[in-house]
Amino acid sequence: MNLQSLLECLPSYEYIGNENPDIKSVHMDSREVTKNSLFICVRGFTVDGHSFFNDAVKKGAAALIAEEQLDTDVPVIVVKDSKRAMALLANRFYGYPTMDMNLIGVTGTNGKTTTAHLIEKILTDARKTTGMIGTMYTRFAGVEHPVQNTTPESLPLQKTFSEMKEAGVDTAVMEVSSHALEMGRVHGCHYNVAVFTNLSQDHLDYHETMEKYLHAKGLLFAQLGNGYYPEQKNLAVLNADDEASKDLLKMTAAPVIQYGVNNDAEIKAVDLVFDEGGSRFTVKTPEESAPVRLNMVGKFSVYNALAAIAAVRMSGIPLKDVIASLEDISGVSGRVEKVTNDNDPFTILVDYAHTPDSLENVLETIKEFATGRVFTVVGCGGDRDRTKRPQMARVAEKLSDMVFLTSDNPRSEAPEQILEDMKAGMKNDRYSVIVDRKEAIERAVREAGSRDVILIAGKGHETYQIIAGQTFDFDDRIVAKQALEALTDDKS
Ligand SMILES: CC(=O)N[C@H]1[C@@H](OP(=O)(O)OP(=O)(O)OC[C@H]2O[C@@H](n3ccc(=O)[nH]c3=O)[C@H](O)[C@@H]2O)O[C@H](CO)[C@@H](O)[C@@H]1O[C@H](C)C(=O)N[C@@H](C)C(=O)N[C@H](CCC(=O)O)C(=O)O
Ligand SMILES: Nc1ncnc2c1ncn2[C@@H]1O[C@H](COP(=O)(O)OP(=O)(O)OP(=O)(O)O)[C@@H](O)[C@H]1O
Ligand SMILES: N[C@H](CCC[C@H](N)C(=O)O)C(=O)O
Ligand SMILES: [Mg+2]
Q1: Per-residue pLDDT tens digits for 383-394
Q2: Helices 112-125 and 319-327 meet at what angle, rounded to 10?
Q3: Residue pair 333/438 in contact by the 8 Å Cβ criterion
Q4: Residue 194 and residue 199: Cα distance in Å, rounded?
Q5: Is the pTM of this model over 0.90?
């Protein structure tokens, strides 16, 4: 595509000159620039992409997008906000790929990854060609690609959509983070369905207040088509039991369907019975009712299942098939994942709870069925919301017999300081502070007795730990298994 044609998507820009090079690729990282490409200079949180324009030109960039005039021989197109411009350019360069597929976006504080997986499972069982973008990976055409963000920046995102389109993807399911919505990463994505899981405290380091955090989530619903045209099917799926839905309802012009357990909802679970392995309930839709056996524990899993049922309403998949798919799932990697076998002396669960609300939900579920003591190994991420630290510690203490406060991903922060912040939430002394996560897990395993449950929270599927900016191999499940084996070896 030639430069002038590419630029047609921008509402305004400044470009003195009339060169019109053919643009073969678009990049936001100078290290990835190839010949005859367009390089977009982005001012980041860490570095300013403008400082790499010379490198980009040396590597073959034929034109630059920047927020200021740059001293170079190639055309420089000056825009007000290069990140916003990038979203529009990426969409145009890759041929507006989301116009040619169904796109389901899932947002909310907790449950996005899980709900997205449930939706993906229902759709693939119904023989739809699906794509998935989220915290754990980007997955389509049978291949998983590693990711850096839950929702990627617009340029890699639109590239992925175009690859999905090429691979014949009919429906893409994606997690949409509040950061992505706020920063415009999903600007220009054509959503058919937007799903809201819930809202509770997280990310206040970035959003500052719960109102602004909710506003960011609302952007997904505001971005949804308005449903005025019958051929343009759109649906907003809201959680009737979450207060925030009242605001989200006002932010969308699309038709709305609500799901819930307590309040009135079109998709409602009634007669809930919980057990150690999951739950049984009856799901009621406007047309029919049907029994469900869910093999994922806790009330929060029921909400995720209801959200998934509502999200696939427009796909035409019969409810009985939807339920069969949900009943076939025993969980998502790193979410309430059992490390131990039935004949082990106690139970070890690895879970991705990294907010006060998710930790509370998972611990309440564990407590309901635990016949022994509950031990919790937990930390908080560095360079993230500090105010959630004492809250998470408090929740852990309230619902556990013993807490091992330890490091999560300290990132650039001092682990000891994060633990100090957590300690501020503790009201009694039923806890130990063990900075090294491996040691903390080993201690919990050594101290657990028969029938006890150890919850290792916060890192779930993660296979790494980031300490002082460096990434090390670390997997809670492997460390726990090794600790358990060491224990068995000691005893024999
Ligand atoms: C705070 C934040 O959102 N940071 C994101 C941002 O990084 P940054 O601003 O630090 O980038 P930077 O390193 O300053 O680089 C600026 C520009 O210079 C370019 N560059 C850089 C070096 C170089 O040699 N050449 C070059 O051209 C970079 O490609 C970039 O275009 O842009 C990067 C590329 O898109 C993101 O990967 C990165 O996410 C980081 C990893 C992150 O941790 N983000 C979190 C806060 C986040 O977004 N989380 C949400 C999930 C939240 C949830 O749980 O719901 C998410 O969607 O992931
Ligand atoms: N609907 C829910 N409500 C509250 N907590 C939940 C819900 N679903 C899952 N959880 C808890 O939250 C944890 C994270 O779940 P999941 O990974 O699905 O959320 P997420 O929204 O994708 O998180 P992230 O923001 O990191 O992408 C789970 O391990 C579980 O403890
Ligand atoms: N998407 C979340 C994941 C947090 C996972 C936790 N292990 C941590 O590192 O804080 C975030 O980026 O805030
Ligand atoms: Mg996720």
Answers
A1: 999 999 999 999
A2: 120
A3: no
A4: 15
A5: yes
Domain span(s) for CATH 3.40.1190.10 in the chain: 97-327
- Binding site: residue ranges? 30, 108-114, 149-151, 177, 185, 384, 408-411, 458, 462
Domain 3-93 has CATH 3.20.20.100: no
For the segment 344-356, the average pLDDT, to the nearest whole number, is 95
Q: What is the pLDDT of residues 303-342, one digit of tens each?
A: 999 999 999 999 999 999 999 999 999 999 999 999 988 8
Q: Closest-lying ligand to the alpha carbon of 65?
A: 1
Q: Please tell me if the CB atom of residue 362 comes closer than 6 angstroms to any atom of ligand 2.
A: yes
**3.30.450.20, 3.40.50.460, 3.40.50.1980, 3.40.1190.10: which CATH number matches 97-327?**
3.40.1190.10
Q: Is 384 in the pocket of ligand 3 (CB under 6 A)?
A: yes
**354 pocket-lining for ligand 3 (C-beta < 6 Å):** yes
Could you tell me the CATH superfamily of domain 337-491?
Answer: Mur ligase, C-terminal domain (3.90.190.20)
pLDDT at residue number 202 = 82
pLDDT band at 62 (very low <50, low <70, confident <90, very high): very high
Rounded CA separation 29/272 (Å): 51
What are the angstrom distances between the C-alpha of 385 and each of 167, 209, 388, 390? 38, 11, 6, 11
